[in-house]
Design brief:
Helicase, Ruva Protein, domain 3; 3 domains; two-stranded antiparallel sheet; alpha+beta; about 325 residues; Lysozyme; about 10% strand
């Protein structure tokens, strides 16, 4: 009778975990090895880390989500997700609410205000959707149960534990995306440690509830990735012949001068500096291929998310936000 009761209790535990979409991770050999590594290399306490991982769960929904990223969609399906009237109007309001902070960040870091706003808009709709998973769960799930990228997420889990220790944050309490990205700008832990700033000077780097810290951190991220103030980002272009096809490059590194692009059949706008370097980008649209040249600053945007689709969505949303913001200011300055 007792044995049957214990079996039934164990079954109920498994059922409850299945309903919640989680499985406990703390007894995993890989987790124990990781704990030992953190103790030896970074002077963590074994018992304290074991207590942390006793809180961690594996989520099947995280594994499902990472297997179907939005960047796998064609451009004509990807663009409507992020470049929308609602998101551009939200960006104009965010710009208006934080105008002085954005101006200050642009002055300090040399990044256009609309680009910083667009990043936060694409990532979290201006802080409205910052993630529903405990970061500890997300990183642990991907570090120990997702072999294709386990080494990357194991590194980010290490960075996360170092980050929470440095910032005085409880590791089990911070929330983020299914990939462990955090706060309004969705920084992964290594980016948080290297690029997050205390832009409101309150003594802490808070990307969850401080718009100033989020704005300043995005600006600093781009500055550290060598944003070139005043240079163009991208231009739509026409192509002719066939030689241009050799210039299309998915890694987005800017390699070709305007003259080299034109010599290979790319029709560029006039007045571009001769020493610019760019790359030809091909996007799928319902009416056939769409061609753009991405310059150095386009490549810098792609350091945030290594995708031409992502970078183009940020750029196009930024232009819509800029138009919306200009219209908003104009309407408010009209005389009654």
């Amino acid at each position: 009778m007792i044995r049957r009761f214990i079996s039934l209790l164990a079954l109920l535990v498994l059922v409850n975990q299945a309903i919640a979409g989680t499985r406990l991770l703390s007894d995993s050999k890989a987790v124990r090895n990781f704990i030992n590594e953190m103790v030896e290399q970074h002077a963590f306490n074994t018992d304290e880390l074991q207590t942390v991982f006793d809180q961690a769960n594996l989520h099947q929904s995280i594994l499902d989500a990472i297997s179907r990223p939005a960047e796998s969609k064609p451009w004509y399906e990807y663009r409507p997700i992020f470049v929308t009237t609602d998101r551009s109007k939200g960006g104009a309001r965010f710009w208006q609410e934080h105008a002085s902070t954005l101006q200050k960040a642009s002055n300090v870091y040399g990044v256009p205000q609309e680009i910083m706003v667009a990043i936060i808009g694409v990532e979290t709709r201006y802080g409205r959707h910052t993630g529903r998973y405990p970061v500890l769960d997300a990183l642990s799930t991907l570090a120990f149960a997702y072999p294709p990228r386990s080494s990357f997420f194991r590194k980010e889990l290490k960075e996360y534990l170092l980050m929470t220790r440095e910032e005085g944050l409880p590791p089990g309490k911070q929330m983020g995306s299914y990939a462990g990205a955090m706060g309004m700008p969705q920084f992964i832990p290594s980016s948080f440690r290297h690029y997050a700033v205390d832009f409101d000077n309150d003594g802490k780097r808070d990307l969850w509830t401080s718009p100033a810290d989020a704005i300043g951190s995005v600006g600093n991220y781009f500055k550290q990735h060598r944003w070139k103030t005043g240079q163009p980002i991208a231009n739509p272009v026409k192509v002719h012949g066939s030689r241009y096809q050799a210039l299309i490059d998915d890694d987005l590194k800017p390699r070709y001068t305007p003259q080299e692009l034109m010599d290979n059949g790319v029709i560029l706008p006039q007045g571009l500096p001769a020493d610019l370097k760019g790359v030809l980008i091909k996007l799928d649209s319902p009416n056939g291929p769409e061609y753009w040249v991405g310059w150095h600053n386009f490549y810098v945007i792609s350091r945030y998310n290594h995708s031409a689709l992502y970078s183009m969505a940020v750029y196009q949303l930024s232009q819509q936000i800029k138009q919306q913001s200009t219209g908003l200011v104009a309407s408010e300055t009209k005389e009654p």
